[in-house]
Every structure is written in structure tokens, then in C-alpha cells.
């Protein structure tokens, strides 16, 4: 912590504290996640492991980690806002073009995760950071898991209930990357309407709300239903929920292919790019990438490092390029994350090389994953974006659960 000036606490809970801080050497803002107890060592090791594997413009940049007084601290680039704040500012939803732009970037982030065999497992508005140009940075990988095979057994009861697919809500042992895609569809509806799709207060309430929209649960879920809850017929639908809105092409089909009872029928993140709902955004991104690639071939890229920082445990990632450009969307300027994604492959190779050469300290930290630790459930009133509860600052309020 001697390298940083602490400016404020931007999140605090049972397991730790998140600070907004400024690095003395560069004067850049960072977010420092401090775990309060050694009892959370496994959770912190898991997050280090995942963060060290991921380097993408739409994933919050992990800088390094260090210990002070035996407690692990994780350092990330600071991002000022999040999707929950944007939704609070737009209670009737955002414009369709912005919704497409945000969902596209979220799918880009998840494609990076899934390509590295990582399930995020807690995709929700609070964990989708936004900069002032609406560039997405997916964060909070404390409950993410790596899988070796599709359908590996998962034991943690994780993810905020509203965005959790039935296989997680009913605590099935096996689920995979498509669990994250259910969350994508839920977030899209919330972006379009300003209201959460399934704001259940209890498990029974959650399953009831899902069935009201999608119809009765398939038979293979019924053995896991709580006592007193039976399959019921649907009384609503995506067409009814969105009936008053002017929708982009393919919106309803996109929802049917993400918010679907059957995991195997949900689109993968990469399939979403070619879906009509995102196709135009994807094509524009490809064109911009091609232009940037041609430009970058004529210039020399600069790599910034922080050689002067010494920590007990350190891992340095290559910072994202500062050469973002802006693209006009729906009359406002938004930076496209894909404009930097041509750097992504190079950065990923750089990261892979760094991981293979990391110190014995960081290798010991991430090489063995002991039995998983279950995180406590969030209290609905303390995390609901439409309650009168105290709102955390700067988009990091949900990095740790159970806020006071």
C-alpha cells in the first residue's frame, strides 16, 4: 500500500474492502480489493488465478496482487460507473442502440472467459463496469470457476438470484458456460424496459416468475423444486413484456435463445455475434478493427510497464492501449471496445508468456485449487437496484457481499 494514496472506500462487506486509490508513480486511479481475513484465502486465490488468465478490452484490467500484513490485495484499473447506475438513471430503459452496444461488449467479455474455460457465474449489472463512453468492463471474478469438461460438477451456490438460470437456482450439480448466457438475456430485457426481468424475493418467488414468462419447468427440473412449488402455465411472454417498445430486428428471438430452460438451446457468446440482433454491431466492429489494424501496421506500439514496483506477490499485465477512438451511435459518442480488440490477441499472447514465467510466489498461489468456499447470499434489500437502500459508490459496491 506504500505505492498508493487511498482516496476513499468504494465497497465494504463481510469479506473485504475495495478502495479507490491513486498510484504515486503514475498518478493513475486504481481499485484495490483487500480481503479482510485469511479465511478467504481460497476465494482470493481463485480470483487471482482467473484474473491472471484473462486480458480483454471488455474485462477490467488486473494489474497485480500483493500482501500486506499477511492479507492479499488485488489491484485493478479503476472504472467509475456500472450498469446498475446507468439503469437507475434510466428507469424506463435505455435506447435500443445503446442496449445492443452494451450486450455486444458483454458477449465479447464472456467469449473471452469461455474460451479460457472460465464460467463467470455472477453476471449482473453491478458487475458490469462502464466508463464515461459506455465501454464495458466485466469484473468480480471471485466466484468464477474454471472447467476442464462440459458439465463439470459445480458446488458453490453463487450468482444473484435475479440473473441466475434455473439449473443454478435449483442447485443442480452440473452446468456450464451457457449459465452465463441466461444472464445476458435477463440483462437485455432490463436494459430495454428499465426493470429486472425476474426480481424474485425468494427461491419460490423466483421460480414462479420464471414460469409465468416461460411456462412450466421441464420434467427434469421438477425433482429439485422446493416443497409447495409446482409447474405452472405461463401468463406472460417476451412479446407482452416488450410490446410497447420498438425493437431491433431479432430481439425476441435473441431472448428465446438465451433465456431458455434448456442450456443446450442457448446460444454461445460467439453465436450471439452473428445473430440478427447483434449482426450490424458486429459488422461495424469488424470494419473498425480492420481500419485500426491497417493503421497499427504503420506505427510502433508502446508497452508500458511498472518496473519500479516491488511487491511480495506481483503480476503485471500490459495496460490497455490508450488509442481508443470514438464512433457515433444514436447521436452520442461512444468508444467501441472492439476498436482495441486488435490488440487483444497480442496482449493475450503476452499474458500467456508472463503467466508461464511468473514467480514461485504467484505460482504457488494459483496452482492448486482446494475445495470451494460458498459465498453468503445477498440480502435483496441491500443489493436491489430499485430499493431505497444505500447505493455504493463508483460501481464497485458489489465486489463483496452483504454491504452495510
In short:
The chain is of the alpha+beta class and 404 residues long.
Description:
With 404 residues, the chain is α+β, with helices and mostly antiparallel strands. It has a domain at 81-280 and 371-383: Transferase(Phosphotransferase) domain 1 (Transferase(Phosphotransferase), domain 1), CATH 1.10.510. The chain has 14 helices and twelve strands. The chain has helices at 41-53, 83-89, 96-115, 166-169, 178-193, 203-214, 219-222, 238-241, 251-256, 269-273, 276-296, 341-356, 360-366, 380-383; strands at residues 4-12, 16-23, 29-35, 62-68, 71-77, 81-82, 118-119, 128-130, 136-138, 145-146, 326-329, 332-335. The chain has a five-stranded antiparallel beta sheet with strand order 1-2-3-5-4, covered by helices on one side. Belongs to the protein kinase superfamily. Residues 344-354 have a biased composition (Basic and acidic residues). Pfam families: Pkinase (PF00069).
Write the layout of secondary structure elements.
Blueprint (H helix, E strand, L loop, with lengths): L3 E9 L3 E8 L5 E7 L5 H13 L8 E7 L2 E7 L3 E2 H7 L6 H20 L2 E2 L8 E3 L5 E3 L6 E2 L19 H4 L8 H16 L9 H12 L4 H4 L15 H4 L9 H6 L12 H5 L2 H21 L29 E4 L2 E4 L5 H16 L3 H7 L13 H4 L21
Antiparallel strand pairs: 1-2, 2-3, 3-5, 4-5, 6-8, 7-10, 8-9, 11-12
Helix pairs in contact: 3-5, 3-11
**Strand order across the largest sheet:** 1-2-3-5-4
Biggest sheet, open or closed, and with what strands and sense?
A: 5 strands, antiparallel
Q: Label the overall shape.
A: globular
Tell me, rounded to a whole number, the average pLDDT: 76
- Our count of helices gives 14
Radius of gyration: 21 Å
Q: Which CATH architecture of one domain would you pick? A: Orthogonal Bundle
Strand tally: 12
CATH fourth-tier homologous superfamily of one domain: Transferase(Phosphotransferase) domain 1
String of helices and strands: EEEHEEEHHEEEEHHHHHHHHEEHHH
Fraction of residues in helix = 25-40%
CATH topology of one domain: Transferase(Phosphotransferase), domain 1
Quick one: CATH class of one domain?
Answer: Mainly Alpha
| Assembly level | single chain
Secondary-structure-derived class: alpha+beta
Tell me the distance between the termini: 25 Å
Which strand-content bin applies to the residues? 5-15%
Which spans have pLDDT < 50 for at least 5 consecutive residues? Answer: 148-159, 303-404
Amino acid at each position: 500500500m506504500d505505492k498508493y494514496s487511498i482516496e476513499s472506500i468504494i465497497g465494504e462487506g463481510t469479506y473485504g474492502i475495495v478502495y479507490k486509490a491513486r498510484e504515486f508513480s503514475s498518478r493513475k486511479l486504481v481499485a484495490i480489493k483487500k480481503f479482510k481475513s485469511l479465511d478467504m484465502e481460497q476465494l482470493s486465490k481463485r480470483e487471482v488465478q482467473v484474473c491472471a488468465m484473462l486480458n480483454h478490452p471488455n474485462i477490467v484490467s488486473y494489474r497485480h496482487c500483493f500482501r500486506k500484513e499477511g492479507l492479499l490485495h488485488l489491484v485493478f484499473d479503476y472504472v467509475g460507473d456500472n450498469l446498475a447506475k446507468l439503469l437507475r438513471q434510466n428507469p424506463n430503459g435505455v435506447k435500443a442502440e445503446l442496449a445492443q452496444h452494451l450486450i455486444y461488449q458483454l458477449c465479447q467479455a464472456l467469449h473471452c472467459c469461455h474460451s479460457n474455460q472460465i464460467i463467470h457465474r455472477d453476471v449482473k449489472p453491478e458487475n458490469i463496469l462502464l466508463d464515461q463512453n459506455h465501454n464495458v468492463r466485466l469484473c468480480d471474478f471471485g466466484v468464477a470457476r474454471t472447467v476442464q469438461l462440459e458439465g463439470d460438477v459445480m458446488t458453490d451456490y453463487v450468482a444473484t438470484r435475479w440473473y441466475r438460470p434455473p439449473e443454478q437456482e435449483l442447485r443442480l450439480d452440473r452446468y456450464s458456460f451457457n449459465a452465463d448466457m441466461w444472464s445476458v438475456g435477463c440483462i437485455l430485457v432490463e436494459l430495454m424496459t428499465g426493470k429486472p426481468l425476474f426480481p424474485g424475493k425468494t427461491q419460490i418467488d423466483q421460480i414462479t416468475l420464471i414460469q409465468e414468462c416461460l411456462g412450466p419447468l421441464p420434467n427434469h427440473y421438477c425433482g429439485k423444486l422446493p416443497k409447495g412449488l409446482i409447474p405452472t402455465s405461463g401468463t406472460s411472454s417476451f412479446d407482452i413484456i416488450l410490446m410497447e417498445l420498438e425493437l431491433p430486428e431479432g430481439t425476441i428471438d435473441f431472448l428465446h435463445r438465451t433465456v431458455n430452460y434448456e442450456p443446450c438451446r442457448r446460444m454461445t457468446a460467439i453465436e450471439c455475434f452473428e445473430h440478427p440482433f447483434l449482426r450490424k454491431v458486429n459488422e461495424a466492429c469488424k470494419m473498425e478493427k480492420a481500419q485500426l489494424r491497417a493503421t497499427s501496421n504503420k506505427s510502433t506500439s508502446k508497452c508500458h510497464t511498472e518496473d519500479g514496483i516491488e511487491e511480495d506477490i506481483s503480476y503485471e499485465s500490459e495496460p490497455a492501449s490508450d488509442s481508443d477512438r470514438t464512433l457515433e451511435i444514436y447521436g452520442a459518442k461512444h468508444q467501441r471496445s472492439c476498436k482495441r480488440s486488435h490488440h487483444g490477441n497480442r496482449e493475450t499472447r503476452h499474458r500467456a508468456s508472463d503467466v508461464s514465467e511468473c514467480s514461485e510466489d504467484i505460482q504457488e498461489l494459483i496452482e492448486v485449487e482446494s475445495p470451494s468456499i460458498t459465498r453468503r447470499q445477498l440480502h435483496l434489500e441491500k443489493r436491489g437496484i430499485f430499493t431505497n437502500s444505500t447505493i455504493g459508490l463508483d460501481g464497485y459496491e458489489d465486489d463483496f457481499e452483504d454491504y452495510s
